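A reminder before we start the practical. When you read a complex entry, don't treat the lines as separate problems. The point of joint prediction is that each chain is placed relative to the others, so the output describes one connected object in space. Small molecules and nucleic acid strands, if listed, are placed in the same frame. In the example below there are two entries. Take a minute to note the order of the lines before looking further.
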Amino acid sequence: MSAGAASGYRPYTLVAELTYRCPLRCVYCSNPLDYARRRDEVDTEGWLRVLREAEALGVVQVNLTGGEPLVRDDLEALVAEAERLELYTNLITSGIPVTRDRLARLRDLGLDNVQISIQDVSAGPSDRIAGRRSFDRKLQVARWIKELGLPLTLNTVLHRENLDRVPEVIELAEALDADRLELANTQYLGWALLNRRALLPTREQLAQARAIAAEARQRLKGRMEVLFVTPDYYVDFPKSCMDGWGRRFLLVSPDGLVLPCHVAHTLPGLTWESVRDRPLGEIWRDSPGFNAFRGEAWMSEPCRSCERRTTDFGGCRCQAYHLTGNAAATDPACSLAPAHALIEAARREAVDAAPVALEYRTRRAGART
Amino acid sequence: MIAADARPRLAPKVRLRFDRKSDRFMLLYPERGMVLNPTAAEIVKRCTGELTVTEIIAQLAEQYAAQSRDAIEREVVQFLDAMTDRGLVRSEP
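Here is the predicted structure of the whole assembly.
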């Protein structure tokens, strides 16, 4: 019997990556570098079945994301089905291809929350990171969301160019009457890893922004939830990535692969299965990819005997692979990791960083890994 | 502390759902969820913006007649204060 079946993990959240298509070209996009080769999107019927099978497995939340989920014209059908299944729906969007009428329709169909990303607090730097003029439109859409009575999450991905403007981001979130503000530091995988030299902040920048966020969290208590997500590069111990591999999160990629996170299919040697070939529940339980890093048998030292192994599960498998070449290694973000010097070197680079050009998300990079 | 005549209701981003797997009620909000114990669920079900805190306490005192009214009052107020701080419950003025 597989580890998954034996331990009876229950997925609570389905991350539905409806498409890799997106009007923006953000330099820290979390989609895989070869996204352009993965063009064969699951159709409406396929996604409706995924929602039903996910709910039967125990899922209660669905993040409708991408790419840009609004480029799919069947979003309405998916929201309606999620509502029928009593799934909490969170639309994670750039805010670009949408009209006020469409937002109103999605609200009427039961959409529960809209998360819109804003790259910075003014058009110049925001559009520079997004690789396209988009800032003014995003503000307009954020206002529509509130006017329509939908809850608004404002999300800003933080890096060395905008960390010093966290006070202004908070002001903007207050002006927009956001219900929730996510100050999420860049996670350095995929496109963000390519651009790490340009994006990684210094420890001082980070500490200052964190303190400002903590003050705002206290001051806005009860009105606006303020989250601050620290980057792995400045912690002593790694985060429990996805609450542990294949424990609580289930992700379906645009082309139908069932994964524990949005990066897992970039790890070599793991077998992933598609919702087109097998029921979701069987994949969750039996898929060799899911079971590869469940439990503790895969761990090496120092994780294997570490008392934190049941808290952080060894950190992020994808970060381990993309930095060390070994997906079963201790996450280098951990101060106890044999490969921690890689993180320390990146931190030093951040202190005396010379300006470097940004590499935008583009389909031409498809061949790179 | 929440006022006795406040009329609490769930914040717009929050949904209450019965979870068949755990046989409990659950609060759902962006990226999070909270499993409620039976008493908490009975309180949340009454957070509709119509009942005052006093009325919620009275209804629960009737339902849980074996418990002292003081204990119920303490539990309701503590729970609603914590939920208000977390932005999950708001009160009608």
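Discuss with your neighbour: Chain B has one domain: 7-86. What might explain this?
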